[in-house]
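Q: What does the assembled structure look like for these inputs?
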Amino acid sequence: MDLLEYQGKQLLARHGIPVPRGKVAATIDEAAAAANEIGYACAVKAQVQIGGRGKLGGIKIAGDEAQAREHAGAILGMDIRCLTVHEVWIEGASEIASEYYASIVFDRSAKAALVMLSTRGGMDIEQVAEETPEAIATLHVDPLLGFQPFHGRRLAYEAGVDADVVRGVGAFLAALYATFVEEEAMLVEVNPLVVTPERALVALDAKVTLDDNALYRHPENAELRDLSAEDPQERMAKERHLTYVKLDGDIGILGNGAGLVMSTLDVVAQHGGAPANFLDAGGGAKAEAITAAVEVILSNPKVTAVLFNIFGGITRCDEVARGLIEAFEQIRPDVPFVVRLDGTNGSLGRELLEAAKLPNVHGASTMDEAAALVVELAK
Amino acid sequence: MSVVVDRDTRLCVSGITGREGSFHALNNRRYGTNVVAGVTPGKGGQDVEGIPVFNTFREAVAESAANTAMIFVPPPFAADSILEATDAGIATIIAITEGIPAHDELRVYTELRRAGGARLIGPNCPGVLSPGKANVGIIPADFFREGNVGVVSRSGTLTYQVGNELAQRGLGNSSIVGIGGDPVPGSSFVDIIALFEADPETELIVMSGEIGGQGEEEAADYIAANVSKPVVAYIAGFTAPPGKTMGHAGAIVSGTHGTAAAKAAALEAHGVRVGRTPTEVADIVASMLG
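A:
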């Protein structure tokens, strides 16, 4: 789960990391009130989960209330790379002597947390990594040992931070590591990490990704999920405990098992089709789950044909067939379906479907054949 | 021969008194797997259709000489159960549980490697099947027959699909190993490919990968330097958009990292043939062994 900037900052602040004082606002009046309370100059920042919003007009500085209203009006409701801004974060403008970069990522290859520090903050760190990799100091932390004070010194000296903030940077990184571990994050990134003229360190931005599988241990973080910002189909699928990802195309896809569904999307694309979604009905899906899945798939108005690709392991093909028949009784879809049922109880499932004589439902015996047919029918 | 599980496997099932745990433990026993014990704290002294249940792994190992564990407990208890199994001296741990927090997996992985202890397969995997010998996990054994193709995969159903297509072409398997779809798998492609390379029964290795992580790229390098047997690969997720988790917690393209195209290119650069569909993989295997 990706957090918004202000949610990430509140998380960092709980672990003792200094962040600018700020308030969140969803309307122009709220923004003006927040700005008056915080004082001027202040920054009006779009809250969207996307990098580079500053360059796209999503961050503006207000010197008085009129400007705060003007900027909030311009930013609220604007689209930044297809995401609509619903909230702005108003915070006191910081004075900046230097801009550093600090992050911790869950490094899957090294099987350890990777801590990164650079004095080239404030810009695109991927560009720094590509052009001058030596400008980024890196260190893997043993998860059973944890972040040690010498790790902080080593990173600070290797990155070449100003001598008078070495100790502060070490403490900052230790707090960042504590946040990463205790909140069970996959990423915490502070860019820029600002050194003020008074030589204090402040996290001016925050990008935090939390581990979905660990949210049950952090109910206060789980509540941060912004359902209103989620795609309607994805929200509907989540309520029905289905794994669904919306895509751009027009062919609805249902399969069982993440790998098989990914493979199905690929095979459909190879036949010239464009999948509308990823939907994994899961292992051992019962008829009700299949009916719910059909509802979710068809709630996307772009869908012009649907492909069921089931290879039953724990999932029984007769259950899938029953779910599809039930879905037809409830929803009466007006788009063609291609159904490939194989594996556990495959012949029983195919017999059930045949006997039900569902309108515009076509059987296919292999994945390739099914993909070719659904692409043809979607046209 | 085969890898990970065979006729010498003595299985202890953690979570054996749960609905899923008992169902699959008995299913595995029906296949011929020697299921010698189960562990559920507080239910020691009971039995599940004749399989004795113990409170701790230590007791289970002492009483039943179990050498392999299958973990079927819910995510909040799974990391602890894996650590308990290795502490009790279990050599092979197969974790089926899906949804274990990533930081738990990281600590478990580090501890197991440090202790030089158990081999962990999974978590979030379908288990390991050595046809005709033993089945530990949830792989439907009916689709597979004995033979000499070793299969290692991050995905369950995709493995069944490939195994079934091989069987239709008259080919069987030495072992099928599901390494799971999580960000920190206990065993990597490299670990399992090394076992197949050393297994005299295995003549050809099929690896089935997907988007996310660097496991396939690492396997490509390893194969080039260390593997004499032919390897055929499949990669799922060419059409997956960046930043979206495709079902498996580990299946996510981050920025430009972990794409299917990069994985296929890395494998092909080292002479590994990559099938574009599961069917094509089976065709390639059949032509190479035919």
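Chain B touches chain A through 61 residues (CB under 8 Å).
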